[in-house]
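User: Hello, beginner here. Can you help me understand these amino acid letters and fold codes? It all follows right here:
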Amino acid sequence: QYNFATNSQFRFQCDASANADLIYIDQVTITGISGTARGENNQLIALGTFDRPDLNDQESIDEDFKVYPNPTKDILNVKVFGIESANFRIVNVLGQTVKSGKITNKKIDVSALQSGMYIIEVNDGEEVLTKRFVKE
């Protein structure tokens, strides 16, 4: 979470080069813009860039929610800070649920899954957290 100062602005932008860059935006909530004068098309226009050098440090980004080892062969360890009990769902790249249940001992047996990339969703009843992992 990042709290912008009053009257702050931001923009998600691709450099529009020919290399097929894509921007992925996940779980973004923007509040506080209702009732403000933004012009006819209600655009948010950036006047500069926001640089977070610490975003290159994957350890600090993922401190509250980790899945490891990644890639994994048999057991996927799930660490969610502040959550003792949660339900999980594992989804394949086609969006199909391939496994679900309750996390016990912070470990999930994924040995029966085929090799490939998956997304794990962890739901504690208040929020849903997601991570990608690879099954070898």
User: Anything to note?
Assistant: Strands lie at 65-68, 75-80, 87-92, 97-102, 107-109, 116-123, 128-135.
